[in-house]
Design brief:
Blueprint (H helix, E strand, L loop, with lengths): L1 H12 L1 H13 L9 H14 L2 H12 L2 H32 L2 H22 L19 H4 L1 H9 L2 H31 L4 H29 L2 H21 L3 H13 L3 H11 L6 H29 L15 H4 L11 H17 L4 H5 L10 H7 L8 H14 L1
Length: 405
């Protein structure tokens, strides 16, 4: 709920204030890790309402980039996040072994504080004043500040709705997969802790490559819609591979394929951004983040339920003792289908492929007349369809139209 609402409000008051708000609430639970587990849990629960940084960041990127460069910029943001996932666990584990866990928490808190200060001092406001309906401290109407009105307006777009369904169907199995990946690698592939760390590092490095160099190449050669389908096909392949994998080398191969499907999220975000007005970038990116947040809650529950139905206990699957023999009797499925939830996830991705097929072609090839602030004037002057001009540009053109008449 909070992601689209905060995104819609950032369309009213600007990005910087909400970027600062979301980053602050994302980082505030960190120092409480060594203070009290109860305080940490309470503040973490509260911060989850505001910790929707991705939607604000992607809206910020949409404000400052052209449509032709937007998917590459989104890929760079996602690749930066993937790079942090590679370095931070290993760095934290090393510093914790060399010094202490308190030192790791202190260092993380210091970095978070530097992040907040950097936004305050160095990050400019990205949303131009003539696009913002109101500034801080100025009088605004409820219609301008009402985030639900923006949601209803954006929800009426068929392309946006189709892409939101695509995100839900594709990210639901991805969230479930991430929740059980460590246990699955140890139980099915016999991975050690070091091998799991190397596995994650490999996927992270390949994901950075996919979301930077590969994504730019695909967008230029295939276009936005086909790039999304490219990522979904790879996700379908890696989920099916995980489902049937019974050897450790098969799991390594599935991991390399999984890195290639990381192009889906930035390409979907770019296509949704193209189908939104400049003053609606926050709400559409908030919708994407909100759907992903919903999947983060439903995905692990779905995978756990399917494991339960097929009587697969990842904690006990390696055991071969006599007293646990009754746990292994129902595991005759495992000889053919070691990972039933992954195959179910592959079916969901297949449905998402069918859904994204119905995205209109013009949504990929023909942009809306007004998107980038640096091109607003030329777009308005060249447009012959007055109904496609946004309200604030209509006000700018009205005196000129009166003089000409």
């Amino acid at each position: 709920m909070s992601a689209p609402l905060l995104g819609a409000l950032s369309d009213v008051w600007g990005r910087k204030s909400f970027l600062l708000l979301t980053v602050f609430f994302t980082c505030i639970p960190i120092p409480l890790m060594r203070v009290s587990p109860w305080w940490f849990f309470a503040v973490l629960s509260l911060s989850g309402v505001f910790a929707v940084t991705f939607s604000i960041v992607f809206a910020y990127v949409a404000d400052i980039t052209d449509e032709s460069d937007r998917s590459s910029a989104y890929g760079l943001v996602s690749a930066t996040f993937a790079a942090s996932l590679i370095t931070s666990p290993a760095l934290g584990a090393y510093l914790g072994s060399q010094y202490s866990d308190n030192f790791v928490v202190f260092l993380a808190t210091a970095i978070a504080l530097c992040d907040v200060l950097f936004i305050l001092v160095a990050v400019p406001e990205s949303l131009p004043e003539k696009i913002r309906p109101a500034l801080w401290g100025s009088a605004i109407t409820w219609e301008q500040a009402d985030p639900f009105m923006s949601l209803r307006k954006v929800g009426a777009d068929q392309t946006v709705l189709i892409l939101c369904v695509t995100i839900f169907l594709s990210y639901l199995p991805e969230a479930g997969q991430y929740s059980c990946m460590f246990l699955y690698l140890k139980s099915r592939g016999g991975f050690s802790a070091e091998e799991v760390a190397a596995y994650i590092a490999l996927i992270g490095v390949l994901s950075v490559f996919a979301q930077t160099l590969l994504l730019g190449f695909l967008m230029k050669t295939l276009g936005n819609k086909r790039t999304i389908m490219f990522g979904l096909w790879f996700q379908l392949a890696e989920l099916a591979w995980y489902g049937f994998a019974s050897q450790d080398w098969m799991l390594w191969g599935a991991g390399m394929i999984a890195a290639m499907c990381s192009v889906t999220y930035p390409s979907v975000s770019a296509l949704i951004s193209k189908n939104a007005e400049p003053d609606q970038q926050g709400v559409v990116q908030g919708m994407v983040t909100g759907i992903r947040g919903l999947c983060n809650g439903l995905g692990p529950a779905l995978f756990g339920f399917i494991f339960y139905i097929f009587h697969v206990d990842l904690d006990e699957v390696e055991s071969s003792s006599v007293e646990n023999e009754h746990l292994h009797k129902p595991l005759s499925y495992a000889a053919i289908i070691p990972g039933p939830p992954f195959l179910f996830g592959a079916c969901l991705v297949l449905v998402s492929l069918l859904v994204v097929y119905f995205v209109p072609v013009h949504a990929d090839s023909t942009p809306l007349p007004v998107h980038s602030p640096k091109h607003q004037r030329s777009d308005v002057e060249d447009s012959s369809d007055v109904t496609m001009i946004s309200d604030y540009e209509m006000v700018e053109k009205e005196p000129l139209m009166l003089i000409q008449s």
